[in-house]
Amino acid sequence: MEINILNLPNEILLIIFSKADNDKNLSLVCKRFYDVVTLLNEDNLKLEIKSNFLVNSDFDFDNVLNKTSKINLQINNQEMSKNFDEKFKFFLKLYGNRVRSLSHSNTTNFLHLMPNLKEFTLIRNFDEKNSISISNRLRKNSFLLKKLTLVLPIISNWEELKVFDIEELEIHANYFILDENCLKFIANCRYLRKFKIIDYRGSSNKISFDLLSVLPLKNLESLKMSFYNLKKENVIKFLETQNNLKSLSVSYFGKSIFLAICKIFTNLNSLELEFDKNFTGKNCLKCLNLKTLKHLSIKGRRLKISDIEDLSNFYLPNLESLTLHVNVLISQKIIENFSENFNYLKSLNIEIPSICYHDILPVILKNFNKLKNLSVKTNCEIQEHKIHINENFYTTNHSNFNLKSFDLKICCYEPKKLLQKIQKDFPKLEIYPEEFLNKHFELLNEKLPFYCINLNSSVDFDKFPKDCSIKFERKFKDENFIEIARNGKNEITFNIEKYFQNEQLKAMTHTPRKLKTIKLQLKPMQDDIEIENYVNYLKVIGQHVTTLTISNKTTLYQLKEIIVAFRNLKVIKFVDILFEKLDYKILEVKNKKIKEIEMIFKLDLINENLKLLAKYFKFPEKNLESFKLKILNKNIFHVEIYKKLAEEFLINQEQITNEREKWKNEEENYEYELTKFL
Amino acid sequence: MDIDRPSDPQVSVVSSDGTMFHTTLKSILLSGTIKDMIEHIGEGGVENMGAIPLQNVDSKTLEIVIKWIEHHKDNIQPTSEEIKDKTADFIDPWDENFLEMDLDKLYNLITAANYLNIPQLLWLSTRKIAMLIKNRTPQEIRSLFNIEDDWTPQEIEAVQKENQWCEEK
């Protein structure tokens, strides 16, 4: 059969286009290509706009928006002021055609200024006047709109809402929203692939949602629904028509519906079942067809131990994640069966009565070697059942264990020993049981290498140990930061990019702690006095800093001043920063000790950037020992950049041999590292 | 299920135009689709299952696919999940050479690799096309793939306006 590239299905063209890195030209080739390119949705910008922000802000939209084609807009303004309206309209006139997704709470007046809207989320109730405007204005976007989310909308004129080309629909509704007109609208959306109906429990007995009305929906791949207000009789009839379904999530269903699900769906990838509290189907799980599942979630307080035993006897070689919230005692035998039959489980989330903690957790840890995420919690809030765990809680040697995150509610008699054991048993652990650490701050004096702080949690700072080195990894509150900065002895590291206010830096100048590593996010400072103060504070706190990371809107002038402040710098990292006239003499003269420069790019690199990079690469300074280029960006076809740098810009082949190409293909990031050892 | 036995039995596959090909079980298991089929045959085993019909692959393409899977039967193959975001790698010169074929054959190979669920072959073949597209103008791409320009001047102007963000300054 002779075929043309246009005959290839979208999913293949997407693969090809994502590797071609030529979106702009591809979208101009033909309409089909344009549609596919718009599906390549990688460079979205999430923009949250609050009323005050837009009115009072001097936020530099141009600078940010030049780097992105697609804006996801979230508007959180309760009350619209005329001033906001005007500013917002002006913003949309400039950037409205880039808005791809809109989530907003109180206005529809500007929908027509976002002609390329693909996703629309309507969050609040609307009065009748506004609902008319939604229908009318959305109709103009109906061709492009693919995903519609309606959260408790009061729409009186559903019949006007003619966005029938949508592929995803999510309605958060109660009984009076799902009226006849709403159902007619849903039924008309014949291209729907994903359908969620979040059906809130109503206070009235009135039942109005009859799935018979939406029988025409036959292309669904993903379906989520609860059964509070559904007419049960026609549910099975509806489910029987869903031959393409891959993902099903249902809650509060009766026995007949459950049996129908067992019978109809034999080929699902994902299944979530939340059993009604009155559901008493003994050995019901036995009836399920689970073999093809990758994700399984079962929540049911009335399920019996025999049900869980049945589940544990299934051989599910594809299962990657299991969520189990039940009210039964899970035995060691069951866990062993799980581990034997669910070989590839990467994520396990269990909520069980507290009293069986001792028995099963060591067995889980021992048996699931591929597990990366584990969450075990008690669903029992009664004080007498509080769990007590001692240092014998963990089994012997788990040094090869891969666990990275560990969420566990623990109350123990000997937390110190337990912590030591945790560290010994899980060498790769990155996220500790937070609640445990926050309760036992005194342990941090016990030679913990560092403590990663998430100061959003409720922490008693009076107990915070002064001898502990601290590493800020996540968001923290300024007042907590100042407190920690002023008290304590050992090192402090900021592994989070932050714009420090002068006041915060001033607080740091009084700290006896040594600042070792800092990631600075800078904003352009117009005022010389502002820069001078900033730099003066940095001079005090920066004397021990050996690693500095600078990102964001740094100007060359700022950079010069700031680098001077850090006298003992050895490693300097630039994130998404390229200066056309960056002169390494700044680094050489003022900072003799800088040995390593690293340039990190999270944003797309364009050709001009490459040429600049090549210049840096070609003429590095004498004192440098290595120059690294790291690209952390899924959009870039890394090997091409490497080749371009290596082939076009390096002086000769001998230099190429001195380079090292290293790949780390981790779960989230793609890291390409090119190092020049000098 | 017989797929774990040490010997490597012969398996037959039949193309959409009725041509039968013979290959080894180890090679054919590189295809996720066929692996699934074989895992479900149950009693009787691989030896007795007969030729596997492949309705969506013609004989010319199937011949190419078999050549590739036989060459790679001893290599560890990435899963479709693992290869999903694969962005660069060392390309085996044998593969580079193997993919030297005209576009029609390449399309058919891509379609077959997709249908047969052979992630590595799909990655290689789609990459080949992507490299052809890279750095080309819209007109060059149209000529290369014989695509008709269906934009009106007004529409193209609108798209260009939308694309302005990425114009190099």
UniProtKB/TrEMBL annotation, chain A:
Keywords: Coiled coil. The keyword Coiled coil applies. The keyword S-adenosyl-L-methionine does not apply. Residues 5-37 form the F-box domain. Residues 646-673 form a coiled coil. InterPro entries: F-box_dom, LRR_dom_sf. Pfam families: F-box-like. This is F-box domain-containing protein.
From TrEMBL, chain B:
It comes from the Eukaryota. The keyword tRNA processing does not apply. Residues 120-166 form the SKP1 component dimerisation domain. Residues 11-74 form the SKP1 component POZ domain. Signal peptide: none annotated. GO terms for biological process: ubiquitin-dependent protein catabolic process. Pathway: Protein modification; protein ubiquitination. InterPro entries: SKP1, SKP1-like, SKP1-like_dim_sf, SKP1/BTB/POZ_sf, Skp1_comp_dimer, Skp1_comp_POZ. Keywords: Ubl conjugation pathway. Pfam families: Skp1 (PF01466), Skp1_POZ (PF03931). Belongs to the SKP1 family. PANTHER family: SKP1. This is Skp1-related protein. It comes from Polypedilum vanderplanki.
